[in-house]
Design goal:
Layout (H helix, E strand, L loop, with lengths): L1 H7 L3 H4 L5 E6 L1 H6 L1 H7 L2 E4 L5 H4 L9 H12 L3 E9 L18 H18 L6 E6 L14 H6 L3 H12 L4 E6 L5 H16 L6 E4 L2 E3 L5 H12 L4 E10 L15 H20 L4 E6 L32 H11 L1
Helix pairs in contact: 7-9, 10-11, 12-13
């Protein structure tokens, strides 16, 4: 009991201070409701949605920075680093970006100008205050017969929309670390596509500094072996690795239960074991992995509620709905101490 009490007073970011930053995705609601938890356990924050294109520039040249600024102020007041997320993505980008006033598609040069203008405005506003940016998000396809995901960026600009985004980002803030970010990053087929994409950017001397592994993982999948293989493969590129959107769903993909009001004992025990295994692995590669960000902070708010199963509650974090440490938290502290 005394040991548990001493662990409970430990802060996650302090426990792993010799290994990597410990981050959390935030939004205006969590900045208010989870404020003390965030201040106590995290030394890095990411905007969940508030720095995406549609949030910052819903209409051409009309920027809405209020919610992004709120997070930046919170980070500054509490001595936290900030990861920027995200500049170029096929999703949450308003239609106007790709269209003329009459609704017809714009051409390559016009879209490149809009991309550059957006990146310039956003990155220069926070220049020197954001240590890393997810410049391009989820551009690689999940389909076996495709390398890049179909998108308006690809259709109008061509494959070099990715390299252009990195070039513009580097011009806007030469000191920010620039990342390519994606999910299913440990699935071998997709892993190899991501690896080849990033390798090709490096070979063209495009200013890319890291790979973001989203890490939306489950109790059993992907296997530790696949995660290890992915980390080692990306590390071959000689770039930094960030875990960018970590959560551990208590449900496997085929589990459609919507009747649970709280996680089962088995779920909590397995989740704690899983977090311990994962952080032992991440710690082993902390020379390459310099930041680990959870996609949230506590179980009272997670994007996994109602996704992908409507009406299903999830409990993916080391802190419960009342911001109290779960078994997973104690496993993390044990790993940090080992």
């Amino acid at each position: 009991m005394n040991n548990s009490r001493s662990m409970e007073t430990m802060k996650l970011h302090e426990a792993f201070k010799d290994h990597f930053l410990i981050g959390a995705a935030t939004n205006p609601w969590t900045l208010k409701k989870q404020s003390e938890l965030l201040k106590n356990h995290f030394n890095s924050v990411t905007a969940e949605n508030e720095m995406k294109f549609v949030s910052l520039q819903p209409s051409e040249n009309e920027f809405t920075f209020d919610n992004a600024d709120l997070m930046m102020s919170f980070a500054k007041e509490n001595g936290m680093g900030v990861r920027g997320h995200t500049l170029v993505w096929h999703n949450q980008t308003p239609k106007w970006v790709f269209e003329k006033q009459d609704g017809s598609p714009i051409d390559r040069d016009a879209l490149l100008m809009r991309m550059k203008s957006h990146i310039d405005t956003v990155m220069k506003r926070y220049k020197g205050e954001i240590y890393a940016w997810d410049v391009v998000n989820e551009a690689v396809s999940d389909k076996d017969d495709e390398i890049l995901r179909p998108s308006k960026w690809l259709d109008i600009i061509g494959e070099d929309f990715i390299s252009k985004a990195f070039e513009y980002a580097h011009e806007a803030d030469p000191h920010a670390l620039l990342f390519y970010n994606d999910y299913n990053e440990s699935v071998p087929e997709k892993r190899e596509k991501i690896y080849k994409l990033v390798k090709s950017l490096k070979e063209k001397d495009i200013p890319i500094h890291g790979v973001g592994l989203q890490a939306h993982w489950k109790l059993e999948n992907p296997s530790l072996d696949l995660i290890r293989q992915a980390i080692e493969r990306y590390a071959e590129l000689g770039l930094k690795l960030h875990i960018t959107e970590l959560d551990v769903s208590v449900f496997e993909h085929e589990d459609n239960r919507t009747d649970l009001k709280e996680p089962t004992t088995d779920m909590l025990e397995r989740q704690a074991e899983r977090y311990g295994e994962l952080f032992q692995l991440l710690k082993e590669y902390s020379r390459d992995i310099t930041s680990v960000t959870f996609w949230g902070a506590a179980d009272d708010y997670t994007w996994l509620d109602n996704f992908p199963i409507r009406g299903r509650k999830n409990w993916p974090f080391p802190f419960d709905e009342h911001h109290k440490p779960k078994q997973s938290f104690y496993e993390l502290i044990k790993v940090a101490r080992s």
